[in-house]
Amino acid sequence: MFKKIIIILSILSCLYAVPFEKDYVYEIGYFHFPPYCFTNDQGEVAGVFMKPVIEKLNQEGIKWNATEYTLARFYSNLLKGKIDFAPTLELPFVKLIYLQGTSVAPLEMRIYSKGNKAPVKDKRDLQGKSVILVTGMTYSGWTKYIKKNEDKITHSRTKNAKTGFKMLQAGRADYFISYKRPANNALKNIDIPKLNYQTLKKLNSYWFFRKKAPYAKELLAVIDEIATKVNVTE
Prior knowledge:
By secondary structure, the protein is of the alpha/beta class. The chain has two domains: 24-106 and 204-228, D-Maltodextrin-Binding Protein, domain 2 (3-Layer(aba) Sandwich), CATH 3.40.190.10; 108-203, 3-Layer(aba) Sandwich (D-Maltodextrin-Binding Protein, domain 2). The protein is built from eight helices and ten strands. It has helices at residues 2-16, 51-60, 71-79, 92-97, 142-148, 161-169, 180-186, 216-228, and strands at 26-31, 38-39, 45-46, 64-69, 85-89, 98-114, 130-134, 154-158, 175-179, 195-210. The strands form three sheets. The chain has a six-stranded mixed sheet with strand order 5-10-6-9-7-8, sandwiched between helices. A two-stranded parallel sheet has the order 1-4. A two-stranded antiparallel sheet has the order 2-3.
């Protein structure tokens, strides 16, 4: 009887264990996007997207390697299938190579200004104005439009929300486009009197898992389950 119980428990443990390739090292990719994903001062993977997932991988004994990329390199490596899984926005080319999970977090795209600048509700409202953009961000087509109309819109590049707000504070441009939570994170230590914003668009981000990675479907389901339990609302 005792042996039968042991066998049953062993079978159940196999059923509920997370499947993975024992000797495979899963490549996790991300870019600097605090508080969602970033590398902390100790050189560790951090952020509300990343931490619970890393903890689960360690708990299950799954081998992994995480790399923070510039935005351009991040999307280049996604396109080449060099990243096994990552959180990002829904993009057509990504879905050709990756399985898409459920929504991880809502993202609110905003345009910031100080003083009494005219409100911006449409891309065309930026004509004759200057704007700051984070390098690599597409901003749901806004970057493409701005670059296409360089003769009408002056734009400057910056590496993240913190430096973008410092540029806006110094009067380097009329506007700065950012996402709500990275912006709020940056503004904790930057005081800009009469700072205003308009919401340009609301988007969703997702976990993506490379289709050809070992046990991709099963591991994505596990990550999705973790994501639903994490408070990443804005």
